[in-house]
Amino acid sequence: MFHNMFKLCNLEIAKLLREYIVAVGAESYYHKFVPRANKFHPLHFFSSTTDNLDLPANPSCGSFILNAVGIIRAPRGDGKETIVLVTPYNSQNTTYSDAVSLGIGFSIFSLLSHVTWLAKDIVWLAADSRYGEYTTVDSWLKDYHGPAFPGETSRIVDDACFEENNSDSLDHIKVEGHNSYVYKRAGTMAAALVLKVVDKKEEERDSLSIYAEASNGQMPNLDLINIAHYLAVHRQGLRVKIGSIIYFLKASWVKLLGEMLQHITTLAKRLNPKWKFDITSADYVEGTATLASSIYYQALGVPTGSHGAFRNYQVDAVTLEFSPRSSLNNENVRSAFLLKTGRLIEGVIRSVNNLLEKFHQSFFLYFLTAPHKYVSVGIYMIPFGILIAPLPIVAAALFSSNNGSSNKDGSWKWLQAAKVVFLIHLWAMITSLLPYVLLQLPLGTPSSFASAWAAVAICFLLITYLILWSSSIDCGWELLKSVMIVAAAIGLSLMSVINFSTAQIGAMLIVPMCLLVKPARKQTQGVFAKALMLTSNLALLVVAFPPAALLIAKTLFGASGNIDIGDFWEWAQILWSWNSATYMYLLWIHLPCWVLCLNIFLYPCIGSSSKA
Amino acid sequence: MAALCRRFTGFHFLLVLVSLSISSLVFGDWIGDDEGEQFTEELLLKPLPDRKVLAHFHFQSTAHPSPDSGHHHHLFPKAIAQLVQKFQIRDLELSFTQGRWNYENWGGSDPISSTNAKPPGVELWATFNVPVVEIDTTWKNLTHALSGLFCSSINFLESSTSYTTPSFVFGLNVSNIRYGALPREAVCTENLTPWLKLLPCRDKAGLATLLDRPSIYKGYYHSQKLRLTSTKLSGIILEQTLTIVLQPNIQRNSAHSLLDGAIQPSWSISSMFKRNLTGSCVLARTSRILVELEKNIVSKLEELGHGGSWSNSLLDLSPNPFRVIKEVNPFPEESNSILFEYVNSKEYEPLDVGIKWKLPFVWSSPHAPFHASRFLMGSGTERGSIAISLQSTKSDEYFRSKSNECRMQAVVFQVVPWYVKVYYHTLQIFIDQKLQNLSDVIEKIRVTPSEDKKLPGTLELVLGYPCTVQSVALTLDFDKGFLHIHEYPPDANQGFDIPSALVTFPNLHSSRIYIGDDSSVHSPLLLKFQEKNVVLSYTEVLLVPFTTPDFSMPYNVITFTCTVLALYFGSLLNVLRRRIGEEERLMRSKDATKRGLIPLIVSKITSKLRGMPRSKPLLIFAVVLSVLFHYIVN
């Protein structure tokens, strides 16, 4: 009974919203869907298609979500383009800030319903985020862009149970029944804004946080962020924040670096007052922290909010999260806050509305260092290029030096090295697909999954080595290193195209490891040099091992103390459930490279190897 | 005539004047004559359910086919007559539309919506009386003439990629029809002014004085149409219609009034158009205003017990109408729409027709049985699909009452530009979300595949399905083509338009029958309503995002390449001049030979240039470098 009441309550909000939307004279309908869990599909990376087969066979009536959607048709527009406004709310646990965000959403919607300047249609999606706002927005977008015509039998079942459940209780709300479930569309989306209000106290001013990262490091066009930032700062006097990593804000070495830079710049300015690159230490620290967070969220490949769902359909979208200065229970604070946020969103919508073409200049590849500062692709590609450049050179040097010394076998000796590298990569690929098999087993906790995964992977690795030894492949570590380096270079450059941030962080770990690695037993002159070599090799090998790197990062950035082996499983699960290319990078490029480096480090050095 | 006057002197001039005055006397009698040219003006006003008001202006001019008038006309616009004569036009319809017709709220099965709801932008179709081989050239010339006449870019319809030859959509099974649409054409006063010039009184007198530009362009829908029919028997008939949907002023005091605001706004001609109507155009044979109350309003009135009264507890129509015209319906138990007629004749007292609502009242317009909409599926810049969906409005109990063998017909007409490469074999039809066998549903199909840079793709399809169906959906997959840089239209980054599809329901007609002796009413507008017009609806215009090149790239490449080349040739010249050995030798033999410096350099360059095969790879290298530079810079 209680459950039933609650369910009605959930639907009640959507009904109420729809009633309001109809009252301002806009079109409206309900979007209804059954959420389903993200599953691991090894072959579904980069493809946003989903099977309709994995719909629950008999969805219960309470499990679906109902969203109210309103559409304003631009009075004189041709309806080719739309701007989407999303206000997520949790229908099961509606908070005050949810209500405020719905209120802002509706007040903007009702304002736009009678303005004369609209050229693009406006769609307002009040997304019930009971099962996660991304899921809701994504399923609405899926239905917008690719409705599944066949296999809708389960939906019809839904319809039936929905109708009979509500006919008795909700008949006092007068809605024109049958048309309210017909999905309506409004042209190509020009941009989307996700609007949220959080009730956390700010120090001085009302503030606005902008979230923009979508899946696999994709970003919306910088101009959209610029519009929101400009209007927020210069018109509404809001404080604009974007994410930053607190560790860097507090770290003393960053501060020290900043101070050094400040001294250098002041010195440079004294030398020539025309040089304008003065930077204060505080700016530097903040910029570093923001840049680090920007790179981190791009590298993770997991969207930072429901705006990520729009990017899958090439729609620019940002999440604007407002937080008031003090509690919204105060009448004056609330009205001032509503006025500011409303004006800001109206301004952003109006700016996008006035655009004839969609955002198209090439500002899609950038890192943010402050809400109004960015590092463009033209700048950040250069250090990466310089970082990668030694790899092919060293590979060529190793190859030619080795080939020159032993020319009895001809030049085909490298094929054996390539075989080893290929087998290790094959092993890595199998390892990456293992979770799919493991998920079929009833293992229970994440830690047992993780240990099973590790055990099976190590078993497979041992089998691979057995194969290698039985066929007695011996090619010399220099050739092996050279082929491994080539593979790593190719992998890194491919990854830099897919997700630059992942490639950048990966290259910072892989490149020194690849360049420095040498067999531990190799004779070198000088004890000191050997010790240095050994320690640096060991340190790099530890740091570059993905779970170890995760552990180190966790302790550095001050996570909770106890670390469980199940964390790795959960982490990997997050990556694959969001179709992150970082998962593929880690297992297809990074892991085999690490294994090969370990292999070289532990290489039983035979005297015939020449000096590298 | 003026040129004539100047050529002749004295006596001749007098003669001409006399003949002119005589002829004007003679023709003056013709104005009222049934046999001669006629002009009528009418205005239909109709309250719409969503608190808006429809105003439909209908001006009709007819020219008698008799040859005695020669090249001269009194009322009929000469430009149009010449057009008809020159291009041998049989039928022509040209519409300029801004905004979209709301089929849900403004009606989908009444005569206004089926003849005057048009797709956004410009739509033109015409049939000609010329041999088949000449049709295309005639069409091209016609588009140029019309674009000059109406100050718009109709001439873009000249290219063979933008028009098509429908075979059975317009009901005329003829091969001499051409159809084209420009969805992106903006419509404004510059198109209205030439349209008004075709009226004998322009907008100086009569109903057209109401056309106050700011108020009519502030509306929600604006469609000006020109319909031309020419036959040997009846001469040329020119119908000029202007359909606008206006929002009467509402007092929006508080948000509260929005929610309980079922009360309709009261309006009158002067409040809506900000002009007063005084007198008719003297040249017009009739000048009348009609106010229509839809059948759903009338049924409510009948419930309240005031059948066709214009002043009752629900609404108040002022001033009192001249006549009440009732529609006759084949189903006697249903109520019918009512027209209240006003004759616009008084010169001094403004005729300010208006409705005052007294009670809150909600009604709905008659819908077409199926609501047609079209949308794009898929994302990305590579491929996608077009989907056309017909959703039952469940409004027409007429079909529901009929038995199961009732079959609905729908004709879909879709023109797709060539760069949207539609694969017609991927046509899928879903009825009630179940995939159908094509041969079961399609009664007739005609496909003209597109040809690159020559022909647009055309799909004409007759669907037959039971009336009880809830939804019909068609999908067609397409690939997005690549265009040359010069083939992109302006604002290419907005995307490309696919013109509206047309969905008609050939076994449904929007004709109305009115009581009243036709001879006394004799209204071209009502005659128009009584015609058997097929119920049709246009779908939305679609915007397909395309891959666009970086249009600034050629500029960057040219600048950078030039810089690199200049650097190269500069250094080359430098190297050529500064040949150290040569210089030393020169220094040594300076006294011996007194040769000039410039001839020396010239001879050196020519000798160098003769043996220089390396410049081509260098050029390629420079171009590649500059492209790279461009991407780094941007």
UniProtKB/TrEMBL annotation, chain A:
Pfam families: Gaa1 (PF04114). Keywords: Membrane, Transmembrane, Transmembrane helix. One of its GO terms (cellular component) is GPI-anchor transamidase complex. The chain crosses the membrane at residues 377-399, 420-438, 450-468, 480-498, 504-520, 532-553, 585-606. This is Glycosylphosphatidylinositol anchor attachment 1 protein. GO terms for biological process: attachment of GPI anchor to protein. The keyword Transmembrane applies. The keyword Membrane applies. InterPro entries: Gaa1 (IPR007246).
UniProtKB/TrEMBL annotation, chain B:
It comes from the Eukaryota. The keyword Disulfide bond does not apply. InterPro entries: PIG-T. PANTHER family: GPI TRANSAMIDASE COMPONENT PIG-T (PTHR12959:SF11), GPI TRANSAMIDASE COMPONENT PIG-T-RELATED (PTHR12959). Residues 1-28 form the signal peptide. GO terms for cellular component: GPI-anchor transamidase complex. Keywords: Membrane, Signal, Transmembrane, Transmembrane helix. It comes from Zingiber officinale. GO terms for biological process: attachment of GPI anchor to protein. This is GPI transamidase component PIG-T. The keyword Transmembrane applies. The chain crosses the membrane at residues 555-576, 617-633.
